[in-house]
Specification:
2% strand, mainly alpha, disordered N terminus, 181 residues, two-stranded antiparallel ribbon, single chain
Length: 181
């Protein structure tokens, strides 16, 4: 990589579709976590491991009415944040791509950056909530560390696949004659 290409890469991320698509991926990754793991599979809630957390929170057992109410409230706040991330990502994407929007949805760059965002969500949420704070685990019980490490490995894999996908991508027109990655 040349020196000029190395310095152009960050500007392309900030001014192109990289940042909006990554934010969109963070929000969508949060939705997958919240809908699949919290609601459908019911493996955990946001505060479901407060009996063994690392910060001394009050216990909110999910098998009590009060505990389930608090977990539902915090799950709702979590979903609100992920929803806002999706809205922000879509708004930024809409503002940056003014022509060829239909073609953007088939762009490997868009889907690659979204996978990077989803992977970043997994890594940040996994490290902070599962390991540092210990407020919940992917799936509590005797193998919870393995589940938590698997969640981190999935995040790293999503970032790797997304990075490779967007590297081989073309560009998306922004309507001003320039092209954005």
């Amino acid at each position: 990589m040349t020196a000029s290409a190395a310095t152009a890469a960050p500007a392309t991320f900030r001014s192109g579709i990289g940042l909006p698509a990554t934010i969109l991926g963070v929000g969508l990754g949060g939705f997958v976590d919240g809908i699949l793991l919290h609601q459908v599979l019911q493996w955990h809630h946001l505060l479901s491991s407060t009996d063994t957390d690392h910060i001394g929170l009050r216990t909110y057992a999910v098998d009590t009415v009060h505990g389930l109410r608090m977990n539902t409230l915090w799950d709702g706040l979590f979903h609100t944040v992920t929803w806002l991330a999706v809205l922000a990502g879509l708004a930024l994407l809409y503002a940056r791509v003014t022509q060829g929007r239909a073609a953007m949805w088939t762009s490997r760059a868009l889907w690659g950056w979204m996978l990077v965002g989803w992977g970043l969500f997994n890594l940040v949420e996994g490290v902070i909530d599962h390991h540092l704070l210990g407020i919940h685990h992917v799936r509590g019980g005797p193998h919870q560390t393995a589940w938590d490490l698997g969640f981190l490995a999935l995040g790293a894999a999503l970032i790797g696949v997304g990075w490779l996908l967007r590297r081989g991508a073309g560009t998306v027109a922004d309507g001003e004659g320039s092209r954005r990655r």
